[in-house]
């Protein structure tokens, strides 16, 4: 099914059991939704790679007989945001505020769940690409001088999916069709972000692990 556009992205931090950690920096319910806060201009790009791995054909009697499938391959997402709020960015990247305007990166793992919302080309119904567990990093920051116009340096991240908390997800990604008659958006958020796995945890109440 072809899609068009990038409607919105959602992110949250989960604990080591896949339960939502309610970080107020991300939202009142602990879930970051792009382009909601003032000055947040949304998601520019979400490029998903490694959705499936190419297998290796095995030959016998001069012909291909079966394929050895790739295992342990998880998707990766190249994300670009237009002015993600600093508190959100630092929380998802694993930084802590020193109370004096500075941010220190910690060694603690941050389990990040991600949903990318787009639209179907034919009916316009939302399609959701969901990742239940992964790591978000900012590998580079390209800062350039302004010239005759402002030279913006977007927030560019790499999201690497990890082993999901729900083993039924297989490679770490699940696709939801918003046009399905049985689709329930709140139910999807519960499943991906672990809202009903247990009582929501407050930030700092659990150590995250992968």
Our Rg estimate from Cα atoms comes to: 19 Å
Helical fraction: under 10%
Percentage beta strand: 35-45%
Low-confidence sequence ranges: 205-210
What is the global morphology? globular
Overall average residue pLDDT: 89
**Continuous helix count:** 2
The topology string of helices and strands comes to EEEEEEEHEEEEEEEHE
Largest sheet: 7 strands, mixed
Structural class, by secondary structure, is mainly beta
What's the number of extended β-strand segments? Answer: 15
C-alpha termini separation? 32 Å
Tally the structural domains: 1
Question: What would you note in describing this structure?
Answer:
This protein has 210 residues and is mainly beta. It has one domain (3-53, 72-198). The protein contains 2 helices and 15 strands. A hairpin with a 5-residue loop joins strand 10 (111-120) and strand 11. The longest helix has 9 residues, at 185-193. The chain is globular, with a radius of gyration of 19 Å.
Provide keyphrases for this structure:
4-stranded antiparallel β-sheet, 210 residues, 7-stranded mixed β-sheet, mainly beta, 15 strands
């Amino acid at each position: 099914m072809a899609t068009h556009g990038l409607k919105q992205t959602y992110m949250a931090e989960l604990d080591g059991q896949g339960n939502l950690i309610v970080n107020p920096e991300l939202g009142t319910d602990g879930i970051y939704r792009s382009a909601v806060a003032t000055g947040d201009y949304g998601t520019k790009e979400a490029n998903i790679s490694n959705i499936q791995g190419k297998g290796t054909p095995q030959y016998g009697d001069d012909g291909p007989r079966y394929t050895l499938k790739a295992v342990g391959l998880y998707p990766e997402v190249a994300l670009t945001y237009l002015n993600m709020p600093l508190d959100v960015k630092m929380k998802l990247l694993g930084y802590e505020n020193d109370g004096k305007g500075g941010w220190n990166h910690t060694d603690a793992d941050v389990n990040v769940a991600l949903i990318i919302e787009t639209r179907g080309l034919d009916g316009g119904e939302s399609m959701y690409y969901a990742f239940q567990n992964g790591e978000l990093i900012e590998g580079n920051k390209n800062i350039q001088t302004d010239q005759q116009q402002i030279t913006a340096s977007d927030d560019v991240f790499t999201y690497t999916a990890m082993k999901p908390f729900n083993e039924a997800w297989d490679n770490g990604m699940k696709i939801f069709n918003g046009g399905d008659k049985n689709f329930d958006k709140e139910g999807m958020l519960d499943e991906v972000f672990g809202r009903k796995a247990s009582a929501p945890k407050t930030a700092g109440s659990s150590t995250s692990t992968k």
